[in-house]
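The records we work with from here on pair a chain with its fold. Here is one such record, which you should read through line by line:
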Amino acid sequence: MAFGEKQGSRFFFVGNHLCLDFVNTRVAEHGRLMDLLGEPSDLARWLAEAGVLSGGEAEEALKGWGEGPRGRQVFERALALREDLREVVEAVVMGEPAPQGAIDGVNALLRSRPGYPQIEQTPTGFEKRFRAERDEPLGALVPIAESAADLLAGGDLPLLKKCENPGCVLHFYDTSKNHARRWCSMSGCGNRMKAAAHYRRQRGARH
């Protein structure tokens, strides 16, 4: 499947913010954490599926990163950014101050900003996309950091939530009508938790 195609994707795009979807590339399955970004090609695929890069740009980026130190540098910087974002998001959800070191990590990437914004016409209107400089591989990560800056500085932080399934580690920004969203998705954790609650009620009724 080409970069950018979401059919059968193993990534989760439920966060309503690019930075949250990036944090959500680390998931929990059967009580164990699992990293969906195992290698640089996974990162390139996620960037394409998230709309940060086009399929062709993702393929070019991966070729530019190569298998050597440059590709490893981009990949490790991406994982470091994800960890910084995770620490900030979890602190906000818990109502605690975010670690300054994590904020510094995001700001360091924002300072680099090797690229420029462009307006592109779409079938439904216009959208702004960030174009990374081709000789600056870290540029592909800047839109993720900018998404975090927009969310933290301009969002309604009480709407930043963690899925209420205790076994889930996914986060989302609640844009539902009454801000009553509880699960990462109704088709996933929502249905599982409702089924578990129904089972407990049925079992209680029999005793």
Observations:
- Residues 195-201 have pLDDT under 50 and may be disordered.
